[in-house]
UniProtKB/TrEMBL annotation:
<dbReference type="InterPro" id="IPR000219">
    <property type="entry name" value="DH_dom"/>
</dbReference>
<feature type="domain" description="PH">
    <location>
        <begin position="738"/>
        <end position="854"/>
    </location>
</feature>
<dbReference type="InterPro" id="IPR001331">
    <property type="entry name" value="GDS_CDC24_CS"/>
</dbReference>
<dbReference type="GO" id="GO:0005085">
    <property type="term" value="F:guanyl-nucleotide exchange factor activity"/>
</dbReference>
<keyword id="KW-0344">Guanine-nucleotide releasing factor</keyword>
<dbReference type="InterPro" id="IPR001251">
    <property type="entry name" value="CRAL-TRIO_dom"/>
</dbReference>
<dbReference type="InterPro" id="IPR036865">
    <property type="entry name" value="CRAL-TRIO_dom_sf"/>
</dbReference>
<protein>
    <recommendedName>
        <fullName>MCF.2 cell line derived transforming sequence a</fullName>
    </recommendedName>
</protein>
<keyword id="KW-0597">Phosphoprotein</keyword>
<feature type="domain" description="CRAL-TRIO">
    <location>
        <begin position="1"/>
        <end position="159"/>
    </location>
</feature>
<dbReference type="Pfam" id="PF00621">
    <property type="entry name" value="RhoGEF"/>
</dbReference>
<dbReference type="Pfam" id="PF23289">
    <property type="entry name" value="Spectrin_5"/>
</dbReference>
<dbReference type="InterPro" id="IPR056466">
    <property type="entry name" value="Spectrin_DBS"/>
</dbReference>
<dbReference type="InterPro" id="IPR055251">
    <property type="entry name" value="SOS1_NGEF_PH"/>
</dbReference>
<dbReference type="Pfam" id="PF13716">
    <property type="entry name" value="CRAL_TRIO_2"/>
</dbReference>
<comment type="similarity">
    <text>Belongs to the MCF2 family.</text>
</comment>
<feature type="domain" description="DH">
    <location>
        <begin position="540"/>
        <end position="720"/>
    </location>
</feature>
Length: 872
């Protein structure tokens, strides 16, 4: 800042003695005028050097030259000599010429001529000096329209106006620099500010930062206004005189400073917007955490655990139900607040909050606590009601027993002296017995099982006591044949039919559909761009790249819409009423590993493809580098039949219709669940198009490798889809390794020790077998007839035989048919003659078999060499 203040001082003090008119000499040399000035010798050397340096920096052209006009017409030779010496010592630029107007008086002119003659060589070694007798001599070196009026020229120049203008420009530059420092300081303050843990402190920080931001914005607007005003003044001066090149330079300088100011303002706005958003989201997170902590869910859970369902009296049961009702009422209020917090958390996540993972974790915790508490309250309410029912029944039975005892005790003996009286008493007793409570007809064991969850030891004792009283009353009420002779009572053991506790369930066998992905070539492919050969291959490649990237973006958006619009909505409490509970528990079956696929494409693959837009030659490497990641599609496709079966079961569910309505999708969810399979087949078509337009180009080999990898992936997915329908294999099929190939063949089998007749017979009756080639084994299966109608038709493969690859050999050619080859096992103990549908299929299988056997030999050879080395 002190340097800039010094420049202002020099402009206002020293520059009054040095003129910068903007005139030009020969070779566009810039003219600097040193007019008559008695105080020139008083200017300090340092100040003079700074002024000269400042003036040489005003023209911004490289290699610019300067001409100095030294007006000393009223001065002496000593003054001229001193001035030339100071110019030679202080001028930093490329000095083209020094034009000296010598003194006009006869004496001083003569002295000057003599002095210059003797000193000329000294000055000429340092700078070119020309001594002029009059103003007219200047016209030989400088055109008159480049000279000011005091030298007989026509150049319009006001030195005081120039000083005012330069002062304004330098002041504006200093202000812009100050603004930059202020913005940098404020940015550093924002970046280094420690965030408090209280909401009010965050709000205060937001207000302070916003206030400072607005003040800085006002300062920027004020400086911009000042710059535009200065620019307008310069533009007006330039229109009045187009020849003034220094005005144009000043205009460019101010324009550049304004551009810097705009760039700083734009960068500052972006930085503050991000900081303000982060601070605002931090405040939202604090409030959300505070709301989460203020919920009394844990307190309610503790109260629920303290509430016992083991009661022995009706009063305890009714008191427990009242406490439970109060607790449920409080819980409903708290859970309603929890649902609001969960909804708020989903809204924050939808707005891409930076703490989305933590917020969703809190939402899941709240949902889990609410579900657990709600389930526990419902269970306890049900059990308390059950206990209340048991106690009511016990009370009724107790009352019945008491009334029975009273009935027997109140019978008058005189009444039994007559037949009619005895029969009437007997009818009364039988009527009373018929009105026994229903629980007494069940037996104590049934009661114990029925009320197992709520019955206490005291209630068990009470129950058995009641049944014992019932038995005693029945004995007392039994009929005796003679009033005197005791007769053993007739045993009354009414059969008690036990209802089964478990009923057989119907098991439905769900068919699994295999979806075979075919490699197809459509003659009217959507990526065929060439129109009668008018476009160049490079342009066509760019067309294909654009389609690849655009369709990838659409694909990612569609996956996200499914995950948010369907999968995430399964956790939405507002839709729980129309969502079957079993469907929520099977969401991973319905959607498979679609979240994993979305994360890969949105975070990794799409960005990598976008980086290849201007360099299509890199797209092959883009696929190859992520070849392993694409294996996740195999898992998705293997799950697809289960997903489709689940969809067919619940496709008419109101939940799906509501979600589709919200998303405004024209197609149902099943169409979007098919998108990953369709996208996988689309890649190889686009790669083929790119390869077609990339002959002998950079990256062609990687592109061919990418196409091969995607075709291999499609084949692997197709093979694995068939593998899941193998039945009857005992053991873990995963131990056989990865499925390499599969297909249907005609097979003849012969045994080395078998009868010749059986071998001959086998040659005429081939078996139709479906072969699965694994890394460690070869499976022979029989394809079963497809069952079901329409889309439910599914093939299955019954396991027949397994050959370990360590004992397998092959014979590539069989006489009589080029499509046949032999697979022999255990030194030709078993020989399988296999007939492929085509020669191409045969060669593909032979190549794969040879590769497996060769790798086995290399492995065995390596193990043997290692063993021998160890032995030696």
């Amino acid at each position: 800042m002190s340097g800039q203040t010094g420049i202002f001082h020099l402009i206002n003090k020293v520059m009054f003695h040095i003129l910068f008119s903007g005139g030009r000499g020969e070779d566009s040399s810039v003219i600097i005028t040193l007019p008559e000035c008695s105080a020139f010798s008083d200017i300090p050397e340092e100040a003079l050097a700074k002024v000269f340096n400042y003036l040489t920096l005003i023209p911004r052209q490289p290699g610019v030259k300067f001409i100095i006009i030294l007006d000393r017409r009223l001065d002496t030779w000593a003054s001229i000599k001193m001035a030339l010496a100071r110019i030679a010592a202080s001028f930093p630029g490329n000095l083209h010429l020094v034009l000296v107007l010598r003194p006009t008086s006869f004496f001083h002119r003569t002295v000057t001529d003599i002095g210059f003659r003797f000193s000329q060589e000294d000055f000429m070694l340092k700078m070119p000096v020309v001594m002029l007798s009059s103003v007219t001599d200047l016209l030989r070196y400088i055109d008159e329209n480049q000279l000011t009026s005091e030298f007989g020229g026509t150049l319009d120049y006001c030195h005081s106006d120039w000083i005012v203008l330069r002062t304004a420009i330098e002041s504006f530059a200093v202000t812009v620099k100050d603004i930059a420092q202020m913005l940098q300081g404020f940015g550093t303050e924002l970046a280094e500010t420690e965030l408090p843990d209280e909401g009010k402190a965050i709000e205060y920080l937001l207000d302070c930062h916003t206030t400072k931001y607005r003040k800085l914005k006002d300062a920027i607007r004020s400086v911009s206004k000042e710059g535009r005003h200065l620019l307008s003044s310069l533009a007006t001066s330039g229109k009045e005189d187009d020849s003034q090149w220094d005005v144009k330079l000043d205009w460019e300088t101010v324009q550049r400073l304004l551009a810097q100011l705009r760039d700083m303002e734009s960068a500052f706005d972006g930085f503050f917007e991000k900081h303000h958003l982060k601070l605002h989201q931090y405040l939202q997170l604090l409030k959300y955490e505070q709301s989460f902590q203020e919920l009394c869910l844990e307190h309610l859970v503790a109260q629920e655990r303290e509430l016992s369902i083991h009661v022995d009296t009706l009063a305890q049961t009714e008191q427990g139900l009242k406490r439970l009702d109060t607790l449920e009422c409080n819980a409903q209020d708290v859970m309603a607040r929890a649902q609001i917090i969960i909804l708020h958390g989903h809204q924050l996540s939808a707005n891409h909050h930076y703490a989305m993972a933590l917020i969703m974790q809190r939402c899941n915790e709240l949902r889990h606590h609410c579900d657990t508490l709600n389930c526990a309250l419902k269970t306890k309410h049900s059990r308390l009601l059950h206990a209340h029912q048991l106690l009511l029944c016990l009370g009724q039975a107790q009352t019945w027993c008491d009334e029975g005892a009273y009935l027997l005790a109140s019978q008058l003996v005189d009444k039994f002296q007559s037949k009619e009286g005895a029969q009437a008493a007997l009818r009364d007793i039988e009527k009373f017995l018929d009105g026994a409570p229903s629980m007494l007809s069940s037996g104590p064991d049934v009661i114990a099982v029925e009320y197992e969850a709520v019955i206490t030891p005291q209630l068990q004792v009470r129950t058995r006591s009641l049944f014992n009283r019932q038995a005693c009353l029945r004995k007392l009420a039994d009929k005796h044949v003679r009033p005197v002779q005791l007769v053993a009572p007739r045993p009354e053991n009414p059969p008690r039919a036990k209802s089964p506790l478990f009923s057989p369930n119907d098991f439905h066998v769900c068919s699994v559909q295999i979806e075979v992905i075919h490699d197809y070539q459509d003659s009217r492919s959507c990526v065929s761009y060439s129109l009668e050969g008018e476009d160049s291959p490079d342009l066509l490649k760019r067309h294909v790249m654009r389609e690849l990237i655009e369709t990838e973006r659409i694909y990612v958006e569609e996956l996200l819409s499914v995950l948010l619009g369907y999968r995430a909505e399964m956790d939405n409490p507002a839709l729980s009423g129309i969502l079957p509970p079993i469907l929520r528990s099977k969401r991973d079956i319905l959607f498979g590993n679609m979240p994993e696929i979305y994360n890969f494409h949105s975070r990794v693959f799409l960005q990598a493809l976008e980086g290849c837009l201007e360099a299509p030659e890199g797209v092959g490497a883009c696929f190859l580098d992520r070849k392993e990641s694409f294996q996740m599609y195999e898992c998705y496709c293997q799950n697809k039949p289960r997903s489709e079966a689940l969809w067919r079961q619940f496709s008419d569910c109101g939940f799906f219709q509501e979600c589709q309505k919200k998303l405004e999708h024209k197609l149902g969810l099943d169409s979007y669940l098919l998108k990953p399979v369709q996208r996988l087949t689309k890649y190889q078509l686009l790669l083929k198009e790119l390869l077609k337009y990339s002959t002998d180009c950079e990256g062609t080999s990687e592109l061919q490798g990418a196409l091969t990898a995607m075709l291999d992936l499609l084949k692997s997915v197709n093979d694995s889809m068939h593998q899941i329908s193998i039945t009857g294999y005992e053991g873990d099929i995963c131990e056989l390794g990865r499925v390499l190939m599969q297909g249907s063949f005609s097979v003849w089998l012969s045994h080395k020790k078998g009868a010749t007749r059986m071998k001959e017979l086998a040659r005429f009756k081939p078996m139709q077998r479906h072969l699965f080639l694994y890394e460690r084994a070869l499976l022979f299966c029989k394809r079963r007839e497809e069952h079901g109608d329409g889309c439910d038709k599914t093939p299955s493969y019954s396991f027949k035989h397994c050959l370990k690859m360590t004992a397998v050999g092959i014979t590539e050619n069989v006489k009589g048919d080029v499509k046949k080859f032999e697979i022999w096992y255990s030194g030709r103990e078993e020989v399988y003659v296999v007939q492929a549908p085509t020669v191409e299929v045969k060669m593909a299988w032979l190549n794969e078999l040879r590769r497996i056997l060769t790798n086995q030999q290399k492995l065995l050879r390596g193990l043997w060499e290692h063993h021998m080395l160890y032995v030696i």
